[in-house]
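quick one, 427 residues, struct below
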Amino acid sequence: MITIYKDSSANAIFIEDANGVQFINSLQATIENGACSIHDLARDIDIVTDEPFDNFEDENGNTYGNNSTEVCNALNAIFSSSGTPTENAPNITSSLAISLVEGETLNYELTADYGVGYEWDLSNVSGVTTVEGNVRKLVGGSSLATGTYNIPVKAITYNGEDSETVVLTVSTPPFANTKSISFANQDWLGANASQVDAVLGRSANGSGSSDAWSISMWFKGSANSQGQVILYFGDNDIANGGYIQLMQINSNGNKLLRLRYGSNNNNLKLQTSAGSITPNTWQHILVTYDGGTTGASSGSVNNYYSRFGIYIDGVLQTTSNSNQNYGYTGGIDADNFRVGRFVSGNYMRDCRVDELALFDSDQSSNVSDIYNSGSPFDLSTLTTEPKHWWRMGDGDTYPYLQDSGTEGNCIFQMNNMTSADIVNDVP
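---
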């Protein structure tokens, strides 16, 4: 007996007489000399020749008919479009558009009418592969970056082929803020200062808007009584070389922010009011500089102070101001860029920082948008995007914090820290 049956899920014909599996649309039953034959159309050979009609049965042991004609017709029916010259070419019926969010895994199965064989060109989609035993199914793709990928595919029979292009669109994940960086003891972040020189650096005494910048961050201050450096950019020679320093200062038990611009010998200092920083509370900080001159004349010191703005939770702070030698006229060199450390000592303790961003312009007029009523959001949706933006744990792998800004080239390294310092505490 010759057992013949169709497995529709496998899209295949099984012939249990050592012929094994055959493709649908590849076989044709015929009657010759009153007996039944089965012809392999692809190889143009008979795989069954002149067998009596009652020698054919299905997987349940039932015969296919009472004579050769009935058996032949029944077999061609299960062979489905058996591949005669007048039969149908394949037609791909599944959707040709796939949408993924970056990081998700693909799970797509191609379907086609009259399909037998399938060919994919996966050269453009790294990490995407077919499933063993089901060439119609695609999986993988979690490493694909945001973008559009074209995937050519063919469904093939002996009557022709259907060639199509599956378009895979990988979109940016929806914004989620779940991590921040915790600082204690001698923890600090360091990066290649030259990568942010075009934003925070300058060559002389402020040339205008081309030297302007803004620093945005979410900050959870500390009850620690010591002065703590939040951010430092500038020279190794603090006595004579210029730098930007943002600190939390203690004033009779109350906390405030202090911005120092210049060197130890020549500088401007702006301090917010005592109590403007609330320990153990997330607050948004925006510090702006309009790029103008910051020193030279005693009669212009107030103008120099006005170059800067300090905003806490979207509100411009009234500052008490002081100076050394009427401000600073020199450049700001890219020797150091740090969060949580001065050139030496003055670490940040028991504080947390989230969503640190640098803009190469004065963003005073956009403070409301950046603060966003107290809700961190996707800064890339701003009209003016930050040149550098560190998510502070979201999407990062210890010990490196990636740059999500438009420049995207400045990576922080965590120093004296562990992976446990990436914490689930956010504004």
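The first strand starts at residue 2 and ends at 7.
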